[in-house]
Structure prediction request, 881 residues.
Amino acid sequence: MNNTDIVKHGLKKRYAKEKRFQWYGRLAVLTGFVFLTLLLLDIIIKAMPAFQSTQILLDIPLDRETLELSTDATINKDTLSAINYDGLIKKSLSQLYPQVSKRNDRKQLYKLVSSGAEFSLREYIMKNPELISSNSEIPVLSIWLKADDDIDTFYKLQTKISRVSDRQVEFIDSLIQQQRIRTSFNTTFFTASDSREPEQAGIKGALLGSFWTLLVTLLISLPVGIGAAVYLEEFAPQNKITDFIEININNLAAVPSIVFGLLGLSVFINFFGMPRSVPLVGGLVLSLMTLPTIIISSRAAIKSVPPSIKEAALGIGASHMQTVFHHVLPLAMPGILTGTIIGMAQALGETAPLLMIGMVAFIVDVPGGVVDSATVLPVQIYLWSDSPERAFTALTAATILVLLAFLAIMNTLAIFLRKHFERRW
Amino acid sequence: MNSSALLLLITGLSVIAFITARQRAYIHGASSKLKSLPKHYGVLTALWSGIPALVLILSWMIFQPAYLHQQIIQSLPESITIKGEDSLSLYINTIDLAIANGEASDDPVIQKAILSFNDAEKKSRIILTILVLLLSLSGIIFGLTKKLLNSHARVGVEKVVKGFLALCSAVAIFTTVGIVLSVLFEALRFFESIPFTDFMFGTSWSPQTAIRSDQVGSSGSFGAIPLFVGTMLISAIAMLIAVPIGLLSAIYLSEYASARFRSIAKPALELLAGIPTVVYGFFAALSVAPFIRNVGESIGLSVASESALAAGIVMGVMIIPFVSSLSDDVITAVPQSMRDGSLGLGATKSETIKQVIIPAALPGIVGGVLLAASRAIGETMIVVMAAGMAAKMTANPLDAVTTVTVQIVTLLTGDQEFDSPKTLAAFALGLMLFLTTLILNVIALHIVRKYREQYE
Prediction:
């Protein structure tokens, strides 16, 4: 056997190996895709129920006798807000099912409606006081009110869950027959803040908290980041200190985010005495965290501006500073902004350091500024994912979708900026 | 005047300084030659009037609380100050609280302390306002002198701007120093009560502190070995997932895939890196973990509901893009001539990859893997949501383990006094975490840089 034969003999095996290796590669890429799709699909499926909420149609009697108003009482804010709305709802529920008399059954009947329903009823009547003042006949208000979260889950998923009793299932069946139950778009999810009751909980507070936190982050990290990048790229002398700064920036980019949380806790809160749970401190911590990203990408953008432009400016008598601020920086701006948006997207999704500085509290109020207690979208996800109620799982997934949507918008914007404004020289 | 009003005042004065100095430079320039543009004189004067005053306000904001506390302590009668540190600080806390809430107190001593506090604060505010005004005005006056008009104003302005730029880049140093100092100091305080060796080599972790000191197990035990083991276990699972998948996809995308497929697949894989970790945590805790438990139970294995496997797998998926994009970079950096040489000798493509490209790119790949490992060790949200709380020393991936980051979060969320060993332990763990990831990063960056030089 000569050499050619030996090679030919092994050829088949080697080609098979080649094929196999290619398939390993395909498989690896495919696995990545499968994980990505599974993740997104899982979250979308889990989130769907949260965008719908179940409502029950109730006939609320609004005659003065039921409202416990004397016939000559004037209708104003005080008298209206003094009405027992909870009682009204219970009354109308009892009228729907007059045969229910046992105490336990009544209790379950009343539990069909969300505990927040009385507030929405009250709000509706305060807005439309003429409903009561009309004296012609016995006025009845037909209004769709939110169902309790367990009923909501049961009705949407159409499966038996342990927290809905058999008696309640009967009630719901008869409501379905009377066409008194429906699902509609869940606006509460976008207009309310955190709540212990899933059907009353929304993300407005977390959304605004994220907004304020990111605003602080942007206001600090953009100027400081650009300043640092300009200095290191254009003015810094070649010496040990500059080297040290560069090493620091590269290392900070890889420090675990939770360590930044520890820094925030011990420096900003314990040493400087700043308040806990506020967007100001959150923004400070996140800006320290995103600075390396912004500095690194800004430096790359500044570096890519051709030296000929700089030399032309210097040649006609501009100072170094003028050259940088009048010519180099404007040309590098699209690249810098791209990096900044990517950094902001990172900051928007960051959770761990914010847990350290106390932005993990249960906060019902919508934050109105950077020193109001607040929580942010990712932390809200973390908080809700821990809740035992099943309806919160859907809310969590829906919040994740909102967060991902914002991230997608930011990244698309970054890509758009890069494609349309970045010049290649 | 309060601080924001003072800031407004300074801004206003600076604007006035700018306008008047510029105007003066115009007038001056009509008769004699100016060395810079009039606006530069304006800016320089504004800086002279603004910056010293701003520095004063900032330092006042930092040092004033300490000064006021000193005043309070001095105003307290000796009967309280003599009792010792603990009761004194407790007392001062009460006073602070009363001041913050703006309420009167029944205790005459506290009432007196509040009064003296308010007095001292008022005094220091008045002094501050006067000083700021003086500084700001003298800056304006200096800006209007002949001396400044004859100077190179632009050079002066540029010096200040350059100083500001240098300060910006020094923030990176401040941050590192801040991290090191804050973590180190609290960790040292922790090691005062718990010996370092007990922490590093102890095998039992149960950081509860009792309410009464004579309770059983009141001191808690702070042996961190179980946490290190748990962290290693989960990170190892993650690396087992991420390294093969990441490396193989990088090889496929850079060597085999068509340009079109690559341009779609690469960004799609990198989407995995853009998803927030809390989302992965949710996926791990509510989908992967139950799935693994069900599968395990159906084949007769007992799987913990917070198994290390679930957290590890999801974490592995998260770091696939790190491994793949870093490996992709180094693989494409291998010179084409090496490929051509190998192919020209008759090797198949996969033989070229396995025997030429990978060995040539190995240092860079190792660097990328180390960076990914440091990511895995420092990752928090996935393990907080999907891994367990109880420290357990085991190598069984189906058991629940806890990690360093989980314990940091558990120890520091919730209300507890800051000085207890329980909270300080979090900083000791943070120190370990910081050091480990720092060492990994330094080695990785060093390898990557060295490798890059090799082929440039």
Summary: Chain B is about 80% helix and 0% strand. Strands of chain B lie at 205-206, 221-222. Chain B has two domains: 3-151, 221-455. The first strand of chain B starts at residue 205 and ends at 206.
